Task: inverse folding
């Protein structure tokens, strides 16, 4: 389920659907259904797995560290998405990968300059299993 998630600008609704699918799989692995009324934390502790949303964030931040550390003469350029006739689409702007990274950094109280120290960076973004 995590293949390619490092580059997703994932929305809350998609993260929620992944969480639901993960819990269905964990319950199925343990041979229980929702009718048994066993809390999600019990399954996580029993199987020793972390939340998939946290693992996605860890992968995204790991990829961010890789991109940030690479040596490149030309900086990365972000091109705005335009419609066929050259105008922007209506409504709220789409969530970009950079905006999602900024949000992740704020949530974990991290800064972009922490990326340079690889061991410290990996230790800070690592998700703790149960």
Result:
């Amino acid at each position: 389920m995590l293949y390619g998630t490092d580059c997703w600008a994932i929305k809350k609704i998609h993260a929620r659907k992944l969480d639901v699918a993960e819990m269905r799989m964990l319950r199925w692995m343990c041979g229980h259904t929702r009718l048994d009324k066993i809390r999600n934390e019990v399954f996580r502790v029993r199987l020793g797995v972390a939340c998939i949303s946290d693992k996605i964030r860890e992968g995204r931040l790991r990829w961010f560290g890789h991109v940030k550390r690479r040596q490149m003469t030309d900086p990365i350029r972000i091109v705005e998405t335009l419609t066929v006739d050259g105008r922007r689409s209506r409504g709220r702007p789409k969530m970009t990968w950079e905006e999602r990274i900024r949000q992740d950094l704020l949530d974990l109280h991290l800064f972009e300059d922490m990326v340079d120290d690889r061991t410290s960076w990996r230790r800070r973004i690592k998700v703790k299993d149960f």
Residues 9-72+92-125 form one domain. The chain is about 50% helix and 0% strand. The two ends are 20 Å apart (CA to CA). The chain has a mean pLDDT of 86.
